[in-house]
Amino acid sequence: MNLQGIGMTSQRTRLRLINRLKESGIRTQDVLEAMANTPRHIFLDEALAHRAYEDTALPIGYNQTLSQPYIVAKMTELTLENDPQRILEIGTGSGYQTSILAQLAKEVYSVERIKPLQEKARQRFVAMGLRNIRLRHADGGMGWPEAAPFHAIIVTAAPEDVPRELLSQLADGGRLVIPVGGQSQQLMVMTRTGNEFSKRIVEAVRFVPLVEGTVL
Ligand code: SAH
């Protein structure tokens, strides 16, 4: 793995990606800066690294994908809207979304069901010097009860319905950012006030499904 990576070419293409995100309506300066500072190519296998700064989802093995940068930026904005200190992420995957969140919040807890993906992500966090991320190999539909409540929960795989366990692990005022649905999915924000939950639909999205159980 090479943090310096692809050098000047990478620097230019990275800036082009940031401009594209701005044009797509991403306005939060902190989010744009974190994305500009994050080497997306280290989250991919070498054979795909040259496509790292395209605004597309890319395969990471095990039938999973690293999300499209626009969607990462959008979900990060939504997750950080109430300035959460403690965030839970379901679906670590490559760790790219995790690493962006970790640059912008105090503590990030992230759950992944596929062990080899989790291990690769862990190495990337070490390489980036990120020390505020805790990882767990488990079925994220159960959340992370011992570390709850969370000010924000972000889910990067789509369940058919919002998992109740995740709602119950939100702090008062906390928010759940989650794609929901099967063939057609909507990105939603559920906000907790006491024991009431309000729902906002953001836009249509396409995520891999949230799957039960774990893979070693
Ligand atoms: N945020 C990731 C996206 C990875 S794709 C990235 O940017 O790379 C979604 C991830 O969710 C996959 O790694 C998949 O294994 C994981 N996943 C799916 N169902 C899960 C579950 N029930 N618990 C934990 N992780 C799950």
From TrEMBL:
Localization annotation: Cytoplasm
Pfam families according to UniProt: PCMT
Matching InterPro entries: PCMT, SAM-dependent_MTases_sf
SUPFAM superfamilies for this protein: S-adenosyl-L-methionine-dependent methyltransferases
Gene Ontology cellular-component terms listed: cytoplasm
Catalytic activity: [protein]-L-isoaspartate + S-adenosyl-L-methionine = [protein]-L-isoaspartate alpha-methyl ester + S-adenosyl-L-homocysteine
Enzyme Commission number(s) of this protein: 2.1.1.77
Active site: S67
Keywords: Cytoplasm, Methyltransferase, S-adenosyl-L-methionine, Transferase
Record PROSITE patterns: PCMT
Gene3D superfamilies in UniProt: Vaccinia Virus protein VP39 (3.40.50.150)
GO MF annotation terms: protein-L-isoaspartate (D-aspartate) O-methyltransferase activity
Chief site of localization: cytoplasm
BP GO annotations: methylation; protein repair
Top-level class of the enzyme under EC nomenclature: transferase
Family recorded in the similarity comment: Belongs to the methyltransferase superfamily. L-isoaspartyl/D-aspartyl protein methyltransferase family.
Function in brief: Catalyzes the methyl esterification of L-isoaspartyl residues in peptides and proteins that result from spontaneous decomposition of normal L-aspartyl and L-asparaginyl residues. It plays a role in the repair and/or degradation of damaged proteins.
Protein name in UniProt: Protein-L-isoaspartate O-methyltransferase
The species this protein was found in: Oleiphilus messinensis
Originating gene: pcm
